[in-house]
Amino acid sequence: MGTPRGLRNAGSSSSACRFLAAFAVLLALPTLTAGLTRHYTFNVQMTNVTRLCVTKSIPTVNGQFPGPKLVVREGDRLVVKVHNHMNYNVSFHWHGILQLRNGWADGPSYITQCPIQGGGSYVYDFTVTGQRGTLWWHAHFSWLRVHLYGPLVILPKRGEGFPFPRPYKELPPIMFGEWFNADTEAVINQALQTGAGPNISDAYTFNGLPGPTYNCSSKDTYKVKVQPGRTYLLRLINSALNDELFFGIANHTLTVVEADANYVKPFTAKTLVISPGQTMNLLLTTAPNPGSPAYAMAIAPYTNTQGTFDNTTAVAVLEYAPTRASATGNNNLPLPPLPRYNDTNAVANFSSKFRSLATARYPARVPRAVDRHVLFTVGLGTDPCPSNQTCQGPNGTKFAASINNNSFVRPRVALLEAHYQRRYAGVLMANFPTAPPHPFNYTGTPPNNTFVTHGTRVVPLAFNTSVELVLQGTSIQGAESHPLHMHGFNFFVVGQGFGNYDPVNDPANYNLVDPVERNTVSVPTGGWVAVRFLADNPGVWLMHCHFDVHLSWGLSMAWLVNDGPLPSQKMLPPPSDLPKC
């Protein structure tokens, strides 16, 4: 056996000693270990579930509703093998994961992949890079995410900790959801056929449980136990289908420390508002001498819709471990006072409190110079009723939704695959309007013609383009907020306001120092929000309203970010098991 290569030219005992000394120094340095590979299997199957005394067969992952919690550390590789045992097509989105150069794992059907057909399988394989906190996963086909969702918890790297005092314990994540007694696929299919708004949900849920305010549901109440005088970490996820939600815990003040897996400057609140797609981490400090053995946690909707909505309140229970004070306390469950369903001022006040940490360890890398200025109007509209039917939308039309009056048409093949193969003809058009085609008083009296146009259009961007995007709400078919989610990127929320965006005066009030970094932001009711992002992730990335009814009506678009010149700036090749359309 030959001499080890590193010692062949050592030549003397002194040089050998120098080598051993250097080797000892290397051993003393911190070990830079790569992340672990964590494997999960999703068997997607129909399962009988009973809520509100109604039993129905719903899609589940591994028979669980909600689905399993996935736990990784920053830097880990996550491999999820999905086997579709249903008759429905399905795909899964890892909401908030940046998927650097790896859009093949992003999940939205017909955008980054063809859906997994019944009897088919697909492996989502990606690395969690530079992210830590609370995210989630959900189905991204039709309305299947109403049942197919679960938490995705990213722990900090070992030894890193949090930028706030270490909590006593972590409580199980809480996912807010909606329950429909009806088959949700039938609900949206009927709405798209008739042109009307879809039927509303029958209950809101905490981790799939509606709780005691609903018929037949006292036994289906989510409960979490705490000790007096302790501080807990609580992860919240709004996985509701079509509703922004107020949340509070009676007689408790909450400290917000994270939004969409990005740390924020801590601030306190008694009531939170959280939009579909958004996540928040809270510090919950319990009372040292609680006056009650239990307190209600409650959620109720925030909306300004002109249509019907689920105006109910769901309740879960925060239970204190037995103490002398609680044992003799009030047995009635105190309810938190939540704002009225249309209290836009409460929402604006809460939203204005979010700020990035903007520290050396957690900097706010907001683009200061802007290459592309884009203005998107976001709202509802209409389609004419086909001549051979009667429609139930506004004035006999059909409801629609659009960005810059373009209602997105779902392609028949995956856009990412078409882009990778440079096969665009008949699939997509690179002419999505980056300014409103017909300017009007967006938050005033709507125009007479509210018909939308249709197309599979994208905005092409050169690699590393810095973009300022203003999302302007409209009053067409009523002003309401729209939670816009961007795939493939986080963005910085640099400004927001009511009324029409003023490109001359509003930028002077931007926060370019410590704006909050998110992946989902609500366009204020009757207002606008400005965000900035750097297009440094090549691929095709969906941006859409996270109200699934508006997504179904076409309120979405896609950014096509071209490769950069370096190998590390180019899309990865597709995996061999990528589903076919």
How is this fold's topology laid out?
Elements: H1 13-28, E1 37-51, E2 54-61, E3 70-73, E4 77-84, E5 92-95, E6 121-127, E7 133-139, E8 149-155, E9 169-170, E10 174-179, H2 184-194, E11 203-206, E12 223-226, E13 231-238, E14 244-249, E15 254-259, E16 262-269, E17 271-274, E18 279-285, E19 294-302, E20 314-320, H3 324-327, H4 344-351, E21 372-383, E22 398-403, E23 406-408, H5 415-420, E24 453-455, E25 458-461, E26 465-473, E27 482-486, E28 491-498, E29 516-518, E30 520-523, E31 527-535, E32 539-545, H6 548-552, E33 556-561
CATH architectural designation of the largest domain: Sandwich
Task: Tell me the count of domains.
Answer: 3
Number of strands: 33
Number of helices: 6
Q: Give the terminus-to-terminus CA distance.
A: 56 Å
Strand portion, in percent?
Answer: 35-45%
Average pLDDT, all residues: 93
Domain Plastocyanin-like: 43-157, 173-321, 432-563
Cofactor: Cu cation
Signal peptide: 1-35
Catalytic activity: 4 hydroquinone + O2 = 4 benzosemiquinone + 2 H2O
Task: Explain what the structure shows.
The protein has 581 residues and is mainly beta. The protein folds into 3 domains: 37-155, Immunoglobulin-like; 169-352, Immunoglobulin-like; 372-569, Sandwich (Immunoglobulin-like), CATH 2.60.40. Helix content is 9%, strand content 36%. It has 6 helices and 33 strands. Strands 9, 10, 11, 13, 15, 16 and 18 form a 7-stranded mixed beta sheet that branches. The longest helix has 16 residues, at 13-28. It is globular, with a radius of gyration of 25 Å. Residues 1-33 and 324-331 have low confidence and may be disordered.
